Amino acid sequence: MLFNSVEYLIFLPLVFILYWIVAKFNNLKVQNGLILTASYIFYGLWDWRFLFLILASTIVDYFVGLAIHKKQSQGDKGKLFLWLSILFNVSLLGFFKYYNFFVDAFVDMVLLFGYPIKSTWTLSIILPVGISFYTFQTMSYSLDIYFKRIKPTHNFLDFATFVAFFPQLVAGPIERASNLLGQVTNKRSFKYEQAVEGLKLILWGLFKKMVIADGIAPMVDDIFANYDTMPASSLVLGVSLFSFQVYGDFSGYSDIAIGTAKLFGIELMSNFKFPNFSRNVAEYWQRWHISLSTWFRHYLYIPLGGSRVSKIKSIRNICIIFLVSGFWHGANWTFIFWGGFHALAYIPVFLMGRNTLYKNNVVAENSLFPSLKEIGQLFATFTIVTFSRIFFRSESLTDSFVFIKRLFTEFNWEPYQHPMGYRMVDYFVLLAVFVLYEFRMRRDERNPFKFKSPIVRFIAYTLVIFSILLFYDDGVDRSFIYFQF
Question: Catalytic annotation on 289?
Answer without folding.
Answer: no
